[in-house]
Amino acid sequence: QPLLDIFSWMGFRYQRWRWAPRAEGEGGAAWYVLAAAFAVLLAWRLATRRRVAVAKAGAAAAATATTRSDSPFQRVVSSLERRHPVSSPGETLGNWLARLYAGPGLAAERESLRAMLALHQRWRFDPLGLPPSERKRLADAVEDWLRHQGSA
């Protein structure tokens, strides 16, 4: 947006110069060369800042991905995907599970799936992560659920 504002301002100044070149002490062509050089410098700074920010964000995401292993809940999701329709594109895991246990097949397991999903989401997305005690609680709940399903 700032770059567009500069080009808009430069166009405005050009139109003023074109129709009244001597009004208000216009600087002539040198002024526009200076403004164009400034616009190029600004565009270069914005582009390099974005590349640096993207590179830093990518490095941070890679570091986070390597410090957090996959949640045990993925085993539950894999088991459910083998027996039920998979989620639609763009459907969140929570919405997919809600759709599944709204039917007769998983209605009895609604609360256990909700509890495991809540821990899974904290494991994957909470910036502070999941404490070891809750990680163990999730892993135990997943093992119990899989054993109950006969999929362990």
What Rg, in angstroms, do the CA atoms define? 29 Å
Helix amount: over 70%
Query: What does the main sheet amount to?
Result: none
Distance between the termini: 55 Å
Q: How many beta-strand segments?
A: 0
Total helix count?
6
> Which H/E pattern describes the elements?
HHHHHH
The chain-level mean pLDDT equals 78
Task: Please identify the structural class as seen in this structure.
Answer: mainly alpha
Low-confidence stretches: 64-68
Strand content: under 5%
User: How does the overall form come out from the CA principal axes?
Assistant: elongated
Structure description:
With 152 residues, the protein is mostly helical. The protein is built from 6 helices and no strands. Helix 1 runs antiparallel to helix 2. The protein starts with a helix and ends with a helix. 9% of the residues are buried.
Features:
152 residues, mainly alpha, 6 helices
Summary of the model, kept short:
With 152 residues, the chain is mainly alpha-helical.
Helix-strand layout with pairing:
Elements lengths: L1 H18 L9 H39 L5 H11 L9 H10 L7 H16 L6 H18 L3
